[in-house]
Amino acid sequence: MEMMVEDQSDSSEFVWVNDTQESGQSHVGVRGTVGLPTGGDDEDGTAVQMQLPDDLAEEVISLYDELDGDFYELYGERLDPNQLFWASGVEVMLNHVEELRDQIGLR
User: Fold this and answer.
1) Could you tell me the residue ranges of all domains in the chain?
2) What's the pTM?
3) How far is CA 43 from CA 5, 55, 71, 79, 84, in A?
């Protein structure tokens, strides 16, 4: 299982760490460009880390890349990963709580 961690060199990149890295035996690899805040809590919001299965993480990165390309074509600028992509994604989840309940087996 992999998890997101902050990359001190460039906070605009989405960095993934595998389980062996957590035990000090592997490396950090950049696998996408989905943003991660530069610190913990600040005036812009709260950083939330999560663990996703590899296949789901790849789907999320692919979705971001697709939406980022569409956004760039429409507006001439990059899709802000934290303010638009992640915040909007969480809003969609919150607006579909019953479907989420079904997905996790609470119905």
Assistant:
1) 2-79
2) 0.61
3) 20, 33, 26, 20, 16
